[in-house]
Specification:
mainly alpha; 10 helices; 0% strand
Length: 247
């Protein structure tokens, strides 16, 4: 039953990835950690991020703005080192409370946001978005929303935004892989059965999302997804935030 529920969460997360080019982990992870340990869930999402990124993230590499991507990479690297350190040393209840708060924030932001206007931002903001995004990428694989916020205010082209963010997520996944190997976080023997089931589900979900993006108006589906993410965030805060007082 846990494997089946995990696969359902993976499908939902990577359906969003197929629709938007990012967002798999912020959708799937708050749901998966309701019944799977955080470190196992993060390692599982990393493997699927790599597969999805290699197969789909480089499909539009000709549209990637490498200048903007390079400006974020060094700060992303610094953030990921900090994030892996927290993942190893911080109490899981604290990390799950942070994940719940971030999921709730992203849910509210996406449900309430109405403006689609292109508002440029100064390049020095890459320090904030790159570093914080790197920390969130290492902790939860959820740096994508911050990368898209920064890139969306640097590039007016929707195609270039999607391609550049997909490229950044792939590079972040490769960086996380190296750090996780160094820290010994991907050698959990429980990981195999989850990946055998969830990798095919991941690929099917990305493909389905790509088809839906071309054929359907998906605004209401996106709203439903972010409502689910918000509920998962509230659940994590309800279950884990009170335990911080004991630590």
């Amino acid at each position: 039953m846990i494997l089946f529920l995990t696969a359902c969460c993976v499908f939902l997360g990577y359906l969003v990835y197929g629709l938007t080019g990012f967002g798999a982990s912020i959708v799937a992870l708050p749901l998966i950690v309701q019944f799977v340990p955080l470190k196992l869930a993060v390692a599982m999402m990393l493997a699927m991020d790599l597969v999805a990124g290699i197969l789909f993230g480089l499909k539009n590499r000709g549209d990637v703005n490498f200048s903007e991507a390079r400006s974020l990479l060094i700060w992303m690297g610094i953030g990921m080192v900090l994030g892996v350190t927290l993942l190893i040393q911080a109490p899981e209840s604290l990390l799950l409370s942070l994940l719940g708060a971030f999921a709730l924030f992203q849910s509210a932001r996406n449900l309430l946001s109405r403006s689609k206007t292109y508002n440029p931002i100064a390049s020095h903001w890459r320090i904030v978005y790159g570093t914080v995004g790197g920390v969130l990428s290492a902790l939860f694989g959820t740096g994508g929303p911050l990368y898209i916020v920064y890139i969306a205010r640097r590039l007016p082209s929707e195609t270039a935004r999607r391609a550049t963010v997909a490229f950044l997520i792939l590079i972040a996944s490769l960086g996380r892989l190296g750090l996780f190997i160094f820290a010994g976080l991907i050698f959990d023997p429980r990981l195999g059965p989850y990946l055998m089931l969830c990798l095919p589900v991941c690929l099917a979900a990305v493909y389905t999302g790509s088809l839906l993006r071309k054929r359907l108006h998906v605004r209401h589906l996106n709203q439903l997804v972010w409502v689910i993410v918000g509920i998962a965030g509230i659940s994590l805060l309800w279950r884990h935030f009170p335990t911080l007082a004991i630590l």
